Amino acid sequence: MSSNNVSEVVNAQVELATSYLATDNDKLYVELGNIKHFVDRNPSYSNKFGFKISEEDYVRGSAMEKFGREFFKNSTSEVRKIICGHDKNSEKIRSDIMKAISGDSVTLTALITTLVAAASVPIAYAPIISAILVKIVILPAKDAFCSQWDSSVGV
Questions:
Q1: How far apart are CA 145 and CA 109, in angstroms?
Q2: CB 51: neighbour CB atoms within 10 A?
Q3: List of residues 6+ apart from 49 with CB closer than 8 A
Q4: Domain count of the chain?
Q5: Which domain holds residue 149?
Q6: Each residue of 15-72: pLDDT tens digit?
Q7: Distance from C-alpha of 3 to C-alpha of 9, rounded to nearest angstrom
Q8: More confident residue, 71 or 12
Q9: 88-130 confidence digits (pLDDT tens)
Q10: Residue 72 burial (CB < 10 Å; 0-12/13-18/19+)?
Q11: Is residue 14 part of a domain?
Q12: CB 39 within 8 A of CB 124
């Protein structure tokens, strides 16, 4: 991948992070549910992010929100093990994330997006899952990070 392509991917992640961080949490779950539903029907999109779902295919409402919440909960268990665990192989990423918590939310979200994708979550879901994690777990709980994760996600 050329440096121009890497720069484009990073810029796209920052743009998505900025948009997702400004979105109401309930709407994020609806969006995640729609992305999951779309990718299930179009598997070639699982390695893409930032694609638009047509208005006619977009589903709103509490059922889609619930679907998105459940998918979020199931998708983040491996990420939680990396961030909140004690595995020596994850020490560097844990240290980087804890340092980033005191930085800006967009940079933190981009960092978490990389981690989510590395934890075998398809890239289609990584940016939105990361934004939700930053909004409901990381920023509200800088001092009690992992216990907040457990209570917010219900691990």
A1: 15
A2: 11
A3: 12, 13, 16, 123, 124, 125, 126, 127
A4: 1
A5: 3-47+57-154
A6: 888 899 899 999 999 999 999 999 999 999 998 888 889 999 999 999 999 999 999 9
A7: 10
A8: 71
A9: 888 888 787 777 776 778 877 877 887 787 778 888 888 898 8
A10: buried
A11: yes
A12: yes
Alpha-carbon span 88 to 147, nearest angstrom: 20
Residue 97 in domain = yes
Residue 52 lies in a domain: no
With helix as H, strand as E and coil as C, how does 107-128 read?
A: HHHHHHHHHHHHCCCCCCCHHH
| Token pair 């900025």: residue | 18
Number of H helices, E strands in the chain: 8, 0
Angle at 76 between CA 45 and CA 130, to 5 degrees: 65
Does residue 21 lie within any of the structural domains?
A: yes
pTM given for the model: 0.75
